[in-house]
Design brief:
OB fold (Dihydrolipoamide Acetyltransferase, E2P), Rossmann fold, seven-stranded parallel β-sheet, six-stranded parallel β-sheet, 29 helices, 21 strands, about 40% helix, globular, disordered C terminus
Length: about 850
């Protein structure tokens, strides 16, 4: 009889004698499969037989007793087809003697070649979570501990019947062999609490050790895998005993190589001379000889998980080693990946040329090749973007089915509004006004994003919308992120609306945090009665006591400064009011298709006549005196200046100038003849307001500030924007700063001073010199810094993207195309083929999402 089959039958005999308690092998029958499979393949057992054994015993431990009996009965009969002599030895019939000692000896042998128990390390290179030892890939050699891996000890427990996905996805981590309560607590620091969390804990990068090489062909700096035999190995103390160095000499017939591990003396007991080993790592050099320092290693007879392949590297935390986590995830992937149901219909997988989800999950963790890794990453990214697009389309459809009161404006009203303005609208502003007029006249609420560069004239378009709503007797609310900006809007509206829209000044009120309690009470009462038609304010507008008689229009300025919940709360104060969100931050096309995909878009891409293009210059830190001289000349011409700093106060950890520290220096030594003011976010609201009032009124020549002036502040007499530490800001934010000057008739300038004269680091700033087009800068910012620059506060209720990138326009357009086609066929995802997709969509979008944008 084939000895591999003999070994398996001994396991089955012992398991039967023990009453199917899954303790014939320490850790369960499922733990012997990997080494047995390797032996079976080497022994030449038929592939179908090997697959039958693996498939039947893989989940044996999760089955009830009667099911375990049936599994072993079926497996025994399958073995009989290969070895007929098993007939008389059938241990499933009474009266058959079992060689218990032999079977236990086989179990011990299996343990020796790689089947881990609960009381021993899972393999030579495994470190249990919570043990003192950490993997070398995460720490420097000096930081590694000198103790060998210490496994957790916990009592064996009966496993509950396994219910594979989706139930198994929610199973606790302690159901994985080798993870006890202590390890589970450590893994929770990584957000890992269930088997599903482990399955979706994707690698942060990969080390490609798939290229085997002989020692005589190694070269310095190469990342490579070699197979060699240990010639000798020893441990010696260095640094007066503070460090232990494990040194081995390995050879492969073509040459020898010195290998070193730091503070891992236990390796000497694992790598005995004469033992073949697989080593993967970077080739280093010491005293003219090639070496390897702290390489990954595995015994040659094992299936390579850490060497000789594309090795996944996972995010770690203190107490978790890379090897241990890799082994744990490998076991979960083997158990669950193939059973995860695929939510995408076959038609979409086929048209988009996507691999199955089960394959993608297996390959994204343990890829067979770079090609399969790319295919897996593409599949997972497509899924995320597809679900995002489906949710956006669903939200848009839901909003389109809501009814609201129509608020029409005839052409005579529009003509009067335009005629009474102190300037002529641009073509882009006129188009925007028509879009809004059409929306307000419909019984479906407006849901529009008004996007325009700094100075493109969004405020007057918003004023027209407010005027139309007020002419129909309804109320409007405009919410701004800061009291400074809210007050500026209030001044603009009290100037425009009375003469152009016929709204009395007393019907326009301001509500900010610093408003007195008596005035707040008066305003709330007037809003509830309908006496106040237009309210402009900050977050104070969404406080509970604020109620409206008939809220017809909600305007959110600088929408990326508000979270979804804040916008939803203001909107909820009316009966499906119209929504207009405004931003001066150009939204890249990819974001417009995703995060803002449920909004109708109006673009103000034309600047009012007479606006000068701001000239932008980069000054090195050594040229700061030149920049100050230029500022002095502008002050002498009667102009005003902004000087922006990235920090409020100095920090030991950040090498950048700070507003408070530099204010004294500038006021006393650099611009001593001028009036210098200070503005930052830690000041009280009334203090900030007072400073801005003085600057706006011309009492302050130089305003030293932090990024609090990024949006909305309008000072026509300001001609210079100096930005210190410019490399610490994104291009989109720098563009916002630049937009604060050049709002008058004088030529304006933007001066950028980075923290260091590093050409490579400051290359990005040159884009500010090359273009004043906010959209070009926005696209570059999205590529370099990601979407956070545009989204600000968490914008949406969808799950965090694991693999998809909001910069991948091609993927976004493909996913949106498929989502649109599917949505047209089955918007409710009620067809049988779309049931799993509907469930996936529900999981992807969180219940508290509110609205996307």
């Amino acid at each position: 009889m084939n000895p591999v089959i003999t070994k398996l039958t001994k396991f089955i005999r012992l398991e039967t004698e023990r009453g199917f308690d899954d303790r014939a092998v320490v850790g369960g029958l499922g733990r012997m499969l990997e080494p047995w499979q390797a032996e079976a393949a080497t022994a030449g057992l038929p592939g179908p037989l090997i697959e039958a054994v693996i498939s039947r015993l893989r989940d044996y431990g999760g089955l009830p007793t009667n099911a375990r009996r049936d599994v072993l009965q079926g497996l025994w009969h399958r073995l009989q087809q290969v070895e007929p002599e098993l007939e008389a030895l059938d241990p499933l019939h009474p009266g058959v003697e079992t060689d218990t000692a032999a079977a236990q000896a086989e179990a011990i042998e299996a343990e020796a070649v790689g089947v881990p128990s609960e009381d021993e390390p899972a393999d030579d290179a495994t470190v249990r979570a919570g043990s003192p030892s950490m993997d070398s890939e995460a720490e420097s050699a000096e930081a590694q501990t000198s103790e060998p891996p210490t496994p957790e000890k916990r009592k064996p427990k009966e496993q509950a019947p396994s219910k594979e996905p989706p139930a198994a996805m929610n199973a606790a981590l302690t159901t994985v062999q080798g993870i006890g309560p202590k390890s589970a607590k450590t893994l929770a620091k990584l957000g890992l609490e269930t088997l599903g969390d482990l399955l979706w804990h994707l690698p942060r990068r990969y080390d490609d050790y798939s290229q085997l090489e002989t020692i005589n062909r190694l070269w310095y700096g190469q990342e490579v895998t070699i197979i060699a035999t240990v010639e000798k190995i020893e441990v010696r103390d260095v640094r007066r005993g503070r460090m232990k160095l494990t040194e081995a000499l390995v050879s492969d017939g073509t040459g020898s190589l010195q290998v070193t591990w730091f503070n891992q003396p236990w390796i000497v007991n694992k790598l005995q001379p004469g033992r073949p080993v697989v080593l993967s790592g970077k080739v280093d050099q010491y005293l003219g000889r090639l070496t390897m320092n702290s390489p990954e290693w595995e015994p040659l007879e094992r299936k390579q998980l850490h060497t000789n392949r594309i090795v996944p590297v996972y995010p770690l935390t203190a107490g978790v080693s890379g090897k241990w986590l890799r082994k744990v995830i490998h076991s979960v992937v083997q158990r669950l990946a193939a059973r995860v149901p695929d939510p995408l219909p076959e038609s979409i997988r086929s048209s988009s040329k996507l691999i199955p989800l089960s394959t993608a999950l297996q390959q994204v963790h343990f890829p067979d090749s770079q090609e399969m890794l790319r295919a897996a990453q593409h599949r997972l990214a497509f899924d995320e973007m597809f679900l995002l697009q489906l949710g956006v389309l669903r939200q848009k459809q839901e909003w389109e089915h809501v009814e609201t009161r129509a608020l029409p404006a005839d052409q005579a009203w529009i003509d009067h509004f335009k005629a009474t303005l102190p300037y002529q609208l641009t073509n882009a502003q006129s188009t925007a006004l028509e879009d809004i007029r059409r929306d307000l006249a419909a019984t479906r609420p407006m849901n529009r994003l008004l996007q325009g560069d700094v100075g493109s004239g969004k405020t007057v378009v918003a004023a027209a919308a407010i005027g139309i709503v007020t002419s129909q007797g309804a109320q409007s609310a405009l919410m701004a992120p800061t009291s400074i900006l809210a007050e500026q809007h209030f001044r603009t509206m009290t100037t425009l609306l009375p003469q152009s829209a016929g709204v009395p000044t007393e019907q326009i009120r301001l509500l900010v945090g610093s408003t007195s309690e008596a005035e707040k009470t008066e305003i709330r009462t007037a809003l509830a009665s309908g006496e106040v038609k237009v309210i402009i304010g900050t977050h104070a507008l969404i406080e509970g006591p604020v109620q409206f008689k008939e809220l017809g229009l909600v305007i959110i300025d600088e929408q990326h400064r508000f979270g979804v919940e804040q916008r939803s709360e203001l909107r909820s104060k009316g009966d499906s009011p119209n929504l207009l969100v405004m931003t001066a931050t150009p939204i890249p096309r990819s974001l417009a298709l995703t995060v803002f995909g449920d909004l109708d878009l109006t673009l103000l891409d034309e600047m009012p006549p007479g606006r000068h293009e701001v000239q932008t210059h980069i000054f090195l830190p050594t040229e700061r005196a030149r920049a100050h001289s230029f500022i002095q000349s502008q002050i002498e011409l009667g102009n005003q200046v902004f000087i922006i700093y990235p920090l409020v106060e100095g920090s030991e950890n950040v090498q950048a100038k700070a507003a408070v520290d530099e204010y004294e220096h500038l006021a006393k030594e650099i611009f001593s003849e001028a009036s210098v003011g200070l503005l930052h976010g830690r000041m009280k609201p009334d203090e900030k307001d007072a400073v801005m009032e003085r600057f706006h009124g011309g009492e302050i020549d130089v305003l030293v500030s932090t990024s609090v002036v990024e949006v909305g502040v309008d000072v026509p007499n300001a001609t210079v924007m100096l930005i210190e530490g410019a490399n610490r800001f994104g291009l989109a934010q720098l563009h916002q700063f630049r937009g604060r000057v050049g709002r008058g008739s004088e030529q304006a300038y933007c001066l950028l001073i980075p923290t260091e004269a590093d050409d490579a680091a400051n290359e990005r700033l040159k884009a500010m010199q090359e273009t004043n087009d906010g959209f070009v800068l926005a696209e570059r910012d999205l590529e370099q810094r990601g979407p956070g620059e545009f989204l600000g506060t968490r914008q949406s209720g969808f799950a965090e993207l694991r693999t998809a990138q909001l910069t991948d326009v091609r993927l976004i357009e493909a996913a949106r195309g498929e989502a649109t086609r599917l949505f047209e066929q089955d918007p409710d995802l009620s067809q049988p083929d779309h049931r799993l997709l509907g469930e996936a969509l529900q999981r992807f979008w969180t219940p508290e999402k509110g609205e996307v944008s």
